[in-house]
Write a structure and sequence with these properties.
This protein is mainly α and 65 residues long. The protein has helices spanning 2-22, 28-44, 48-62. The protein is flat and about 30 Å long.
């Protein structure tokens, strides 16, 4: 049941991220916040590949790449 809750939470962050992208939003702060929350969930679930992908996305948005 806890896993279901994590998936539900991740879905909300993913939905928010998708909406921001679809609307060409310039709100990088919210997008980065969503990604950081997704990263925490992926890390807790032991999804190393997902964490790496999210880290790359955060780096691009933060201008570190």
């Amino acid at each position: 049941m806890m896993l279901s809750g994590k998936r539900k939470a991740a879905g909300k962050f993913e939905q928010s991220r998708d909406i921001l992208r679809q609307n060409n939003s310039s709100n990088k702060t919210l997008l980065i916040d969503n990604l950081q929350n997704l990263r925490i969930l992926a890390e807790r679930a032991g999804k190393v590949k997902d964490v790496a992908i999210i880290d790359d996305q955060i780096a691009v948005l933060s201008g570190k790449v």
